[in-house]
Each structure stands twice: as C-alpha cells, then as structure tokens.
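Late entry, evening session. Most of the bench is empty. Finally got around to the prediction I had been postponing all week. Sequence below, unchanged from the version circulated by S.P.
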Amino acid sequence: MDEEIEAVETVEAKPANKKITIINFIIIAVICVGLFIYMIKVDGIDNIKNVLQQVDYRWVAGGVVCLIIHWFCEALNLHLPLKRMYKEQPITNSIKVSMIGLLFNNITPFATGGQPMQAYELTKTGKRVSDSVSALAMKFAITQTALVVTTIVVALFQIGFFINMMKEYLWVTILGFAINILAIVAVVLLGVNKKIITKIIVGIIKFLAKIHIIKNRDEKIEKMEKSIDNFSEQFQVIKTEKKLVLKMFLVAVVQSLAYYSITYMVYKAFGNTGISFWQIIPIQAFLLLIMMFVPTPGSGLGAEGGFLLLFNSVFKEGTINMSILFWRIYTFYLPILIGLLFLIPTKGKTTERTIES
C-alpha cells in the first residue's frame, strides 16, 4: 500500500510551469525598471547620489546579517520536522529546499509556488510528498502562529502608537489577522480532525469537476484522501513532540524578529531617528498584511506602495524612495538571486524514512 501511495505522490509532485515562470520574471523585471525610472524622475540623479553617500553602511551590513538569520531560521524550521521523519536528513538539503521555496514564493502571485516546488525538490532525495507536505504544513502553522502572536504582543505594548498610525486602516489589519488565524486553524484541523477537512476538500473537488475546471474527479478525490490520511497520521506523531513544537515556535519568533529588524536597519541606515524597533514591528506587520492581497509576483507595486504609504511620515525627507529600494533588495531581489543559485543541480543524498506510518 505504501508503495502505491509513493507512486501516486511522485506523479503529483511536479516542477513549476516554465512558461508561467518566465512571464513572472518579466513582470518582476518591469516592476524593477519602473521603480528605478520613478526614483530618477522624482528624486533626480544628484539627490540619489547624495543620499547614497550619506548612507551608514554599518546598518546596511546589519541588514544583511538579519536577512541571513531569517533565511537560516526558515531552513531550520523545515529541517526539524524532516529530521524527525528522516534521521539522515542533512541541514544542507533543508537550506537548499528552503531557499528554492523563498525563490518561488517571490516569483509567483500570492506566494503560491514555494511549497509545491519544495515538495518536488524533497522527492529527489527520497521523501514522500505527503511527508514533505506534513513538514511544510507544520512549519507553516507554527511560523504563522509565532508571527501573529509576536505582532499582537508588541502591538499591545505599543497600542497608542499603533492605533495612531493605523487608525484609517484598522479594518484591513483585523481582516488580515483573521485570514492568518483561519489558515492556522485549517492546518491544525487537517491534522486533528481530518473528516471535516476531507468533506470540505471533496466538496470543492466535486464542484470544480461539475463546472468542468478539473477532470478525473474520482481519481483526484482518491489521491487527496490518501494524502490527507498520511498527513493526519504524521501530524499525530509530530504533535506528541512538544519539545519539537516549542523549539520550532522559538525559532519562528527569532525569524519574525530578524525579518522586522531588516526594516529597522534600513530606517537607521538613512539616519532616521524618532521611533523605536518595537514601534517598527506593528507597522511592518501591517505592511505584510497589505502584501497578502496583492496578486502580482512578490506583491510587486503593492509592497512598494504600502511601504511608501506607511513609512513616508517617519523617514527623513528625500530618503523614502531609496529606503524602499534597499528594503526590496533585502526582502525580494536577494532571495530571488540567491534562490536561483540553489537551482543549480547538485548530487543529493537519498534519505530513508525512519518513522513508520
């Protein structure tokens, strides 16, 4: 039976569509060129040169350190559950898979391309897709929980500042947090009560088949039920590992703080003063919520526009556009460039499963 599931899952794990990937890269290039043209037109070359000469590159280097910490924590939270199932899983492979995930999250709308590509990459070293999905889902649930909890705690301590900054957008904040919480609940329900999620997913598949969006309805339902069963079994095993969950949660908190620190490093690099690191966190968290609703690869234009809208009043005059560029280099362009390097084929070690389902 396990061999049949593995055969099915290997077929399901497919690489990204090359044509769509190329189109997404073109969109990213157009956005990048447009940003440069906008900056030159608004700020002028002389002002840009002057701003760059005044940048404190010690803070820029600090931003690079924060980015590396963010990347490592991302990889570590994938590695920990994989290591639980595959004792010989090397950290180097977890880092590679994680960076490929960041690459495809940044070049696909709504960050939808990362997890499928990660699952595909993991199959190359002998992982079952359902095991990979279990690890990825667990990482997602814990990371999002840590992100939401960290932001809420900091926002409560900075409640006056936060309400004053976000008074016109509080409904978007509430909606964004609600969506994140619902996503976390859905993943947990999938592991705890698979019947509810199975009914919902089967209902969706039947509806999509009825309106002729998908074919082979029964085959799709059978594959989905097998994957849900395996995920639920792995979730039951992993959820008993309280130390593992706590460890992943703490790593995710560090990851969140490292990501927020990038914005603060950019803020300080351009000689800004007046607001603290802890006040940056809720504003940056709100910016992430805005980016969730932007359908372009990497939330292009929405991310830049949101940064301008939220941070324009706290950055020194004449520095906001360069600050946007630096922030996007850290959070968008560098993950793409470094992620592309990890696509270079390497000989990975095949790992054997060490937990029986």
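Two things to note before I forget:
The longest helix spans residues 57-85.
Residues 2-341 form one domain.
Will write this up properly tomorrow.
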